[in-house]
Give the backbone structure.
Amino acid sequence: MGDVNRDTWLELADLPSPGKLPTELDPWGGTLELDPLVPPRGPGRLVPRPELLRRLDRMSPLTVVEALPGFGKSALGLAWAREHEALGGHVVWIGASAAVKDVAAFMRLLRRGLARSGVTELSGLVQGAGRFRRSSGWFDELAAAERPTVVIIDDAHLLADPVIAETFVDLVRRAPLLYAVVLAEPGHHFHRAADLGKLETNVLRGRDLAVRADEVQTFVAAWGHEIDARAARMLHGLTGGWLLPLRLVLDATPAASAEFATHVAGDFMVNTVLPGLGVAGTDTTAMRFAVPDRFDSELASVLVRLRGTPEQSAEETAGALERQGLLWRLPSDAGATAWEYPPLMRRALIEHFQRVAPDEARAAHGAVARHLAQVADDVAVGQAMRHGRAAEDWALLVGLWSKRGWSLPGIDPGSFEAAYSALPVTVQQQFPALAVPAALGDALRSSHDLDWTRRVDILFQHYARVGLDHLADARRIEDPRVLAELLTAAMVARRGEGRLAEAHRLSLEVSRVLDRARLSGEPQWRWKPQAAWYHLQSAITRLSAGELGGVVESVSTAHGLSPRTPVGASAAGLLSALHAVGGQRAQAERWLAAHETVDLADRWTATYATLPAQLTRSMLALDRLDLETSRVALQHAPVGPELGGLWPLVVLVHTRHALLGGDALSMLSVINHLHQVYAHQIDAADGVARQVIDRCTAEVMLATAEVNRFQSWVDRMDSIPAWLATPTVRLHLMTGNLRKAAELAVSGVWQREVQVRDRLMLIAIHALASHLLGRPEAAHESFRQTLSLSADTGDLEALLVFPTEVRHELLSETGSTLDAETTRLLDSVACPYPRCAELVALSEREREVLTQLQRHETAADLARTLTVSVNTIKKQLVSLYAKLEVHDRSAALVRAEGLGLLEQRVGRPTDRDR
């Protein structure tokens, strides 16, 4: 066992005193001799750490607790010693120091400690002729002890002579009830001694001693501070659970401060830890390993080779740093070896690296970025973005954006912001491909404290600004991928401005750019992320313009190009929403299932990517008259924000929910507000915003029995568009014009533009109108069709058209049945619209008189304006007042205003309005 003579080491205990003991100053300036056999006082309050005490309770012959300064090694040893003594065990405490220079001095200390603890007697020690004679009686006493004896060596790394460790380990190996606990910083000799002596060893390292995040508040309270759970997690993230820096930061942080005084932790690292580790010289290996958050053998090899051919393998180099206590080995079930630095250590090393070798530090960041960029893992990609920015490797950042596109901000928004925000103007000029990600990075940077809806809106605003800058820039972009990206941003900008025709032209231009690139031999895979985004935005542009024909095809293409990304998930959700709005349940459910196969967990963009799917869930729930499920789904689909062009669909679904829930009036105020906010989009004739606002306004008018207002609005239209066909038919049904309702319902069913959901409603209205008109054959046929189509689509709302008694009558007459659950649901939800409402029908001449009545007070003035006699005007006024049920001009104007007969224009413009 090294140079130790196994047969003679016992006599070393009989040699004179171990030498001069370490000293410190007393309060009066004198010196105090420290007794190495007296444990230090320790903290006033020891926080229980039962899981660590259990590790020591394992009672291995040798337990080594090794960690860098400040991890609480001595405090842990003290706590365990007190507990062990309380149970009747012997504990010998030895405080090591540089004064213990050799094995003789150490064995003398040990002998004294054993005697002081009552484990052995002093009788075996005989003095004579100025020296102690050899005696091994104390060992015999130790070997014969009936109770276990624990020897705790504190600061064992200060025992410079390796023979001390070898001798002591041999003693532990020979004495059956002797156990040793070594408290040391890395670099001690006890591991080697245990290997030589083949002694079982229990090892606790810094990672084991680090405080867990859920323990921080307990330690903070013991130190006289108070912080909440959020601050505790933040503090743990800053320090990694390193005890002394954690306490130093708390002590230095003023009570009213909103930020922690982390500089003291940095000072501790620079002034106390790093100088003793030998990492501040010209060898930057330890610093290079600090660049990544954590690394495996493969990445370690990349970092080692940065300085040429290494003398040691990466594993050997990492192992050496691990033995120094710098690196923590990470547990792995897969068997792969990985390491990381304690967070404070890593931060201190990186800062030192950047000071002493900035060029080499950038090179290390670049090497790490390129390595991580090849790993098919979202976490690795997020780290690659940060390292690419630290390396100022703009080409790598371009490559990451080209490969991942809009998935990058969702993968790791913090890393994306760190990588792409605040890019120098010169960099963006040199790399035009960075224009879009730079804008998105700046958007994230300016929206930290906002909810996801505002963040999305700000993101699209920055994105649109890039497109507008491109349109104003005369520079020619040669790279077709970059050109397609900038044109898509311009398309989104024009769409948001309501300039839908121009947006559509830009969409066609992007298609041509992509086609040219494909025909030129550009690899198809390079286009997938950006092409998927383009097709999705093109579809939303077509939808906004009311060109529904190519919408489904474009969205399907977007999903096919990038099915497992947030863009693909959003595309699948949009397809499901479009089919759900149209009443095509089977297709809606199929695309909803495709959407749900994409894992969007832990991504801030998940709420936006799932927005269309939430609309689908709400629509399908409303089909089943399940208002609660619909309400829950709509909590994630707020009304108001622009949401990248999807707001009209959100309004449409919210309106349906409000109508079935009996809350039409509150929805009317929302619609009126949106009419002001998005006037530039709504004013685009035949666009989807116009269609949705028109339809929702019409439905709310009818639900609140504003039939006169609706009739007046319809009368000002040259023709009834397809999206108002169903409300118009309902108007005639509610006002008792059954023949007109039945007639328009039949013609509406055959209009190509009418969706399945509206077709079902029209058939149901036709059945009810025919029944009320006494046309049983037509009523029965339409009722059977209503039941069949309702079963196919899962839409029960159409059956609310029938009053309960009429529904039962038609079921009996047609020999049809409804299951008990459907009957219960129909009986539990009221029809959103009144069964009847009074319509004030004015002639064309009466409407003209009413309009002029606003401007003129006397019959004579009216007669002159309308070029008729005063008597004619008086007769027309009598007829007008009678229909309005009033007796004078003022009351007539108030009544007409209340009925909506004086409104100038609501909703869709006509040729006369333009």
Notes: The first strand starts at residue 23 and ends at 25.
